[in-house]
Amino acid sequence: MTNNALPLAQQLALAKGWDNMLRQLMLAGKQLAVLPVERRNDDNEVKGCQSRVWLTLSDDILPTCSMLAWSDSKIIRGVLAIIQEKVNTLSPDDLRQFDFHAYFSAIGLDRYLSQSRANGIKDVVARIQS
Fold first, then answer.
1. Which residue intervals define the domain Fe-S metabolism associated in the entry (predicted)?
2. What domains, with CATH codes, occur in the chain?
3. CA-wise closest residue to 30 among 75, 62, 67
4. Is the four-CA dihedral 10, 11, 14, 18 of positive or negative sign?
């Protein structure tokens, strides 16, 4: 577990086994700040994900970034909540340099993502950091 993990990520890091990890992801997904329906459009959709994923990122108002996201998959909503929790603490410069792969590894998330989900999350992170 990482000492600098945020609350949702810490709960995930403490989960033992797939069943508990899945439960924590589902609970995390309930904490996801929802992307409004009208913003779930082609421009905001992340292509390449097995599940549909939409996200917006703003970095022009606050000193930290502000991410809103949604997915039609409960598991991916949980992963998005973990990502959103971290993104919303980072400045735009810090976000571009942040190592999400290392973060996912530190909290144990990478062990439980299927290859197709991991590829989709990789596309999400690439979109966030671009």
1. 10-129
2. 7-129 (3.90.1010.10)
3. 75
4. negative
